[in-house]
Design a protein that fits this description.
The protein has 230 residues and is mostly beta strands. It has one helix and nine strands; from the N terminus they run E-H-E-E-E-E-E-E-E-E.
Length: 230
């Protein structure tokens, strides 16, 4: 969830993607890397009637890569029926609509302010035969309730991931890596539009930082990568 100024006035979550500015880094990629999935930490101005939650977001407890053995032991023979533009990881209980958005003038990814996710239009399209399809979403909301990708840090190696495009065609992927990285150090390969096909899922993870000017946000991103299933 995007970082906010504590003195800002904001409405409660909506269904559309809205820009949220944080710290200008200089390029669209760096801004995206910093902002994807950052968390809002104030509640009073949103009229939620609760105190903001200042807890760490989940981190990947045991990072893994493509060379590690699978740990997923569930059923992957058949996936769920999904509406068009939906992402699902059944083993984590994730099923969320996928909007589409790019970056704002400051290079920050425009994330949905609700419990939906968004596909970054600067990367590959859903189901593209090459390049990274990047889907980002919130880890939580100011009152501590979970965002669409809150369980992402618990992803298992070999777990199936399903995503449908605008026509309803379902694309199946298999989780190959999971790690929690500093936002300003996300590898450029995660956003490559010409490399091997992969699905990259991003949300917040780790501790909270004060970036100055009354802006708080999580310091890290949890990143799960999946490749097309055989």
């Amino acid at each position: 969830m995007p970082a906010h100024r504590q003195t800002a006035d904001s409405s409660s979550p909506q269904d559309t993607a809205q820009p949220r500015a944080r710290k200008h880094i200089g390029t669209a990629l760096a801004g995206f890397a910093l902002l994807a999935g950052a968390a809002a930490l104030y509640a009073g101005a949103q009229g939620l009637g609760t105190q903001p939650v200042y807890e760490e977001a989940p981190k990947v407890a045991r990072p893994f890569t493509a060379t590690d053995s699978d740990t997923y032991t569930g059923d992957s023979a058949a996936g769920p029926e999904l509406l068009p533009q939906t992402v699902a990881i059944p083993s984590l209980g994730i099923s969320a609509p996928v909007l589409e958005s790019g970056a704002d003038a400051n290079g920050a990814l425009i994330l949905p302010s609700s419990d939906k996710t968004t596909r970054y239009t600067g990367a590959a399209a859903i189901g593209a035969p090459a390049g990274s399809t990047v889907v980002a979403g919130h880890v939580n909301f100011p009152d501590g309730s979970p965002g669409a990708l809150e369980p992402l840090a618990r992803a298992e190696k070999g777990a199936p991931v399903y995503i449908t495009d605008a026509s309803g065609t379902r694309h199946t992927y298999t989780v190959t890596s999971a790690e929690t990285l500093i936002k300003t150090a996300l590898p450029a390969a995660l956003f490559d539009t010409s490399g091997p096909a992969q699905l990259v899922l991003i949300t917040c993870g780790g501790p909270i930082e004060n970036t100055g000017n009354g802006i708080l946000g999580y310091t890290h991103n949890t990143v799960v990568t999946a490749v097309p299933a055989p």
